[in-house]
Model the fold of this input.
Amino acid sequence: MYIYDSIDRTLVAERVAEFRDQVARRLSGELTEDEFKPLRLMNGVYLQLHAYMLRIANPYGTLSSRQLRQLAHVARRYDRGYGHFTTRQNIQFHWIKLEQLPDAMADLAAVGMHGMQTSGNNVRNITTDQWAGVAPDEIEDPRIWAEIIRQHVTLHPEFSFMPRKFKICVGAASHDRAALRIHDLAFRLHRNAGGEAGFEVMVGGGLGRTPYLAQTIRPFLKKCDLLSYVEAVLRTYNQFGRRDNIWKARIKILVHDLGAEAFAKEVEAEWQSIKDGPLALDAATVAEIASRFVYPDYEALEDGPPELAAARRADGRFDRWVNNAVANHKKSGYAIVTLSLKPEGGTPGDATAVQMDALADLADRYSFGEIRIGHEQNLALPHVAQRDLPAVWRALDALGLATPNIGLVSDIISCPGLDYCSLANARSIPIAQEITRRFHDLDRQRDLGRLHINISGCINACGHHHVGHIGILGVEKNGEEFYQITLGGEADDHAVLGTLIGPAVPYAKVADVVEDIAAAYLDLRTGPDELFIDTLKRTGIEPFRERVYAAR
Amino acid sequence: MPLVENGRIVEDRYVRVAADGPIPERVPIIVPAQRFLAEADSLVRRDGSLGVDWPNDRRVAELEPWLGHLALIALNFPKFKDGRAYSQARLLRETYSFGGMLRATGEVLRDQFHFLVRAGFDSFEVKKPADAAVFAEVLARYSVYYQPGADGRAPALRRRLQGGAAPKVRETA
Done:
């Protein structure tokens, strides 16, 4: 958990004051909506179908219980009693009134939160592994580096009006849980042959209309060079990225058009001229940032306490949940608990104010006051003692946050779609809801095993459909909602884009198609140990395509 | 369109020269980029301050041989959203150590002021008179910055190490 100091707090407070002035100028008519638009966008305020939407940044997906309580307060006081967690580890409120926005922002600023750079053509919220700092397979906490980048790019004088938005991700584990390769710029912390930790630099990833995976332009970057390298990449993009066509403005197009090698050459030349300047990170600076990350004072505990084993034997539902939602922690005797925001028939990523408040209390009691947000739109309690798991489960179960479907077919990533978003061509949420109803039988879900479904309501791909094992993309045909289905996408270490299986299907048929695909997998797999994605890799998409279109 | 320098609205001393018109004697002039490059040898020998109007899609490295002779470089923001000139300004100030004036032209609105100043601009052709009138007030909105810029202000990382802003009481955010 990063502790704000007076500088951080002052900046957020000054930002709220500035925004209050901008809203006053808009309400008085001094600013037109056109003039107000870029200003509100720089503060995370979008105008959607029915109301303004406020998006709040949760840097690298870490929240304190105090912050979560304040989000509950904002949901209750200014919105309709719930919030929506996004694939960028942020939270959105969809029903806020313009005149109340400055007050909502001031309430958030009181706990160090803001909407700065959650929209607009600037560097967006820096994301990372939601298990950062607690995952057994990471070499060090990537949030230190994410925080250093976050500070550097906040209200950056040069990079606040880039050709398009810019997403940066930092990972440090052997397994990529942060979807590094779908980012504009990604850093993977690893050790070189000499044992020194540094960054692999990847650039030019992104989904949307023209999906690309990021390419490695530098296998190893010294830690002291992180900020100068970020600066060189952003400077190259800011000058040479396309601005004539919004669909070709992301850095992925520049990298693709120039070629990764030529792009890298341009970056390296710029970097050489600045790397030894004021951006070179010295040990004292890094230590200063690291010192403001506070870690729990863990107890000395053994793995596998007897009360846990007894509880698992006594209650099959609890045992199922432990198998599904509890992961190993780097500290013995502790566990990482993932909380499903994907109940049957629910809106993926939504949490009510009641749930948020109760979860904040649980975090205080059982997780050192800390909560995480993952890009899969689920939450996590990162430091739960294994002996407390039965109590935590009972509480989560009562709150509706213990659906044992993590990583399964009903753990769907979905954008808000046409129910909220003015860009969407089709609805996403009802599609997700219908799929969760079709697969409500948990035994059937468990039998299907790991299976990721991603749904986007338009080509902007906020639901990351290209990297879903099953990707569903809403399109509009003659005024009706149709959905394209892709298969075989992956967002992790083996990142790959899915393949379109055939003509789009109408709204009412999407859940049937997903059932057909699931049935095809069960017929085709060599046995229960072969995951959906592995069967697909072995057989190719043809047998799935046949199954889906044979009857249509 | 009011011109702001040193925080105040001032008269523009510079005369803008056309791509092919006559060049006046002994007054400060701003010459379009193409003409400047074509006639640079004679322009730099002329008596009077010399400025160039540089487009945002041309590398500022091309100006390097002439920087010592230029009193002013005008950089352009064709639209509020088009931020290429911020990079040009920082390159001129920090990489090429340009010490003359950097003028922001085009769609220059109040909410860009602090970015412009931090990127190294010190002359501003402000689009709306109401924005120009509140220039100093708008700049005072922010007292802390995270990153080093061309304005020489100490960024947060340095201030913390110097102990100037270390919090006495730590609050959990």
Notes: The radius of gyration of chain A is 23 Å. Chain A touches chain B through 52 residues (CB under 8 Å). Chain A has four domains: 6-109, 134-291, 306-399, 413-550. The longest strand of chain A covers residues 215-222.
